[in-house]
Amino acid sequence: MSNERKFVYDGMRFPFILIVTCFAAWGIAANMTDPLVKVFSKIFSMSTLQASFVQFSYYGAYFCLALPAAFINRRYSYKTGVLVGLGCAIAGAFLFYPASQSMTFGFFLLALFTLAGGLSILETSANPFVISMGPEGNATRRLNFAQAFNPVGTNIGVFLSAALILPQLNPATPEERAAMAPAALQAIQADELSAVMVPYVGFAFVLLAIWVAIFLTRMPTEREAVAQGPRDVNFGATLKRLLANRHYSFGVIAQFFNVAAQTCVWTFTIQYVIEAIGGDEAQAGWYLQASLLVFLVSRFVMVWLMGFLRPAALLGVMAIGGSALCLYAMANPGISGVWAIVMISACLSLMFPTIYGIALHGLGEDTKFGAAGLVMAILGGALLPLVHGAVMDARGAAFSYIVPALCFLVVAAFALFDLRSRQRRHAQPE
């Protein structure tokens, strides 16, 4: 097999497998965190908007730490970036223990920020690392394959929340909690916050095992150094080139709204289900689990479809489908609307890696800082859930899905832009 037809270069197969475990790991963290908006709103009797600062802290950390990760990757290597990211995430996960003892919302936000900051460095390093492990011609498909293991982690994360956190919530209503004696309320909150802490501390030990395995494994960096050019950092010139690249810049915007849509859909699924068909948090949590199972299966289906269809064309179809499903759920807040929310995950399944791969295509030596920009775009997951939460407080869970519906339309516009750009390039004479 010629070098250009290989999926992964020789000597990179085992490192590729190890990096793929990182994709699953940050999926676990992200989707253990999604239900925490509902969890903390109940434990601390907060509004949905106030509790949405969980996602603001989590995805805000992605924005803050992505650029430092690019400097680490540029100055040293992707492997160094992966190890630094894992180390920071381990520290953040362990912080959940003192947070549970302090019983303050702010301490949990600090733990989430530290955990997500590490995952930001990890993701900024791992995504382009996977791209560099094989030929550029199949880079988007290879990244989609690696990202296909991310929903394995997301399903584990939702399962851990559904099995270990949500069932431990006391059924007392906000009014009943307000009427309790301080000591009785504190005892209930202590039990609930301990349930939040356990899966995160367990997750810290899993990340530690991955860190050791990657540290002990030789990961060839010769191709990385050759492909990306010298390691000297000229940030100003790089930023100027990236901003002038309309294709890349639109990709960053599309990624912002894609992550916003994904975070809104999954974060508020439980609230939508309870409003639409009733039940409690634990029962509604299983619909979120179903969403992630759809996401898992669909990710592998999308990788297969990319063997026959252009990634951008598939992206456009799925983005329009996601917007249509949101609008249907808004108009039909019952069991059919619930299943529409679940099926949105099929549309989401290919979006992040496809936008990522398309936007980075052809960047050459600017890839490492370009990758940071695309991870910084995860800021959409910090800001738009606040809007979604505010709309939900004002107009209800069903109407609030107008927010992801509009986000999907931006992703569809990027897909169309890429397709037209390729058509213009192919139409130009040699």
TrEMBL record:
Q: Which UniProt keywords apply?
A: Cell membrane, Membrane, Transmembrane, Transmembrane helix
A Pfam family of the record is MFS_1
Q: Which domain of life is it from?
A: Bacteria
Under CDD domains, the record lists: MFS_FucP_like (cd17394)
Give the stretches traversing the membrane.
12-33, 53-73, 80-97, 103-122, 143-166, 197-216, 250-274, 286-305, 312-331, 337-359, 371-392, 398-417
What are this entry's molecular-function GO terms?
fucose:proton symporter activity
Tell where it localizes: Cell inner membrane
Signal peptide from the UniProt entry: none
**Which NCBIfam families does the record match to this protein?**
fucP (TIGR00885)
Q: How is this protein named in the record?
A: L-fucose:H+ symporter permease
List the taxonomic lineage.
Bacteria, Pseudomonadati, Pseudomonadota, Alphaproteobacteria, Rhodobacterales
Q: Provide the gene name from the record.
A: fucP
